[in-house]
Amino acid sequence: MSENRPLRVGMLTPSSNTALEPVTYALLRGAAGSVTAHFARVPVTRIALDAGSDAQFDPAPMLAAARQLADAKVDVLVWNGTSGSWLGVERDRALAAALTAETGVPATTSTLALLDACAAYGVTRLGLALPYTRDVAEAIVATYAKEGLECVLAEPFGEDDNEAFARIPAADVAAQIGRAATDGAQAVAVVCTNVHGAGETERLEQALGIPVFDSVTATLWRAVDLAGATPSWPGHGTLLRDGSLRARVQSVLTDLLGATGADRTTFRVDLPEHGLHVDLTAGEALRDGVRSIRRDASLDQRRLNTVEWLEAERRPLVQPHFRAAPHPPRALVDVYGVRAQMLSPVQCDGALTGWISVHSLRERDWGAADREALAAAADRLTAHLA
């Protein structure tokens, strides 16, 4: 991308959508001219579970539209539609790969963006706010279950006319989001790019206490992020403000888990401007079957013996067992089964801003390669926080 122009997002848009473009333009005000959106339409008018509806999402028209957008030298392409949510996520993964193969431009879709948002925030139980008919809604629940997401489904609006989705009043969409934020939902997704769900996101997140992932917002966020930028735009909810930072934290922790063969990696950090506090993790990676610690805020983390040691020493703490001080909290051992750990401080401007934890459910010696991986992770996180 040239340094002399804004980042360009190419969006493949359902032909009967009327909400997507004005909502995207409203969100882009936060970009202060650094990002522009460019649209091409493909025929989509009806959402149902039948061959006629499915045929609207054939890749050929999308590839033709993508070639036209590529003429505008866009930096990223997105299918700004949620069809993969009921037709299958593998279909969207294949579409994104085909778009890139056809144009040489990185690509994603609205459904993949929603899944990326859930991964960045560690969401495993997701509320759904949908305009569709009940059978389409149930297909979405089944699709997301295959991706490891349990769903809390608010009663859908029962529409199948794509143009009509945008005529659902924003207040009704907001009320539906509230109904989906029950039963242990860790976030709510508005799954449709022709629904007015973005305007109330900031207010609803404050009222409900959980993230709200509007499809239009999520698609723009992931497109900009995929193009190599890091959106941090206030006023539109946590995803456009904090999502890229959380995704980068998650990537570091996943890499660290693989490099060390540990059972759990976490990062805790005090960044109030991003809604992060050390008493809840900013990210977590887990081996299969390992219990999550992500949402346990029962301990005052700064008062723990191990954290006070990090504050005083400002160097990694490597513990092959817990028979010597400093001792971890009993809950880490008794509730979460941890028997060995490494901790590394992460500092900004001389302050202990946060720390990485690497947990093992058995006693183990941490070798030189483990320590090097921890040091590299700390360096990467420090760079992301800068």
What would you note in describing this structure?
This is GAF domain-containing protein. It comes from Streptomyces tabacisoli. Pfam families: Amdase, GAF. Residues 245-383 form the GAF domain. The chain has 386 residues and is an alpha/beta fold. The chain has two domains: 7-236, Rossmann fold, CATH 3.40.50; 245-385, GAF domain (Beta-Lactamase), CATH 3.30.450.40. The protein has helices at residues 20-28, 51-55, 59-71, 84-87, 89-103, 110-120, 134-146, 162-165, 170-180, 201-208, 215-226, 238-260, 305-313, 330-334, 368-385; strands spanning 7-14, 35-42, 76-79, 107-109, 125-129, 150-153, 187-190, 212-214, 264-269, 283-286, 317-319, 340-348, 351-360. The protein has a five-stranded antiparallel sheet with strand order 10-9-13-12-11, sandwiched between helices. A four-stranded parallel sheet has the order 2-1-3-4, sandwiched between helices. It has a four-stranded parallel sheet with strand order 6-5-7-8, sandwiched between helices. Strand 12 and strand 13 (351-360) form a beta hairpin. Helix 3 (59-71) runs parallel beside helix 5, helix 6 (110-120) crosses helix 11 (215-226) and helix 6 (110-120) packs across helix 12. The model has no long low-confidence stretch (mean pLDDT 97).
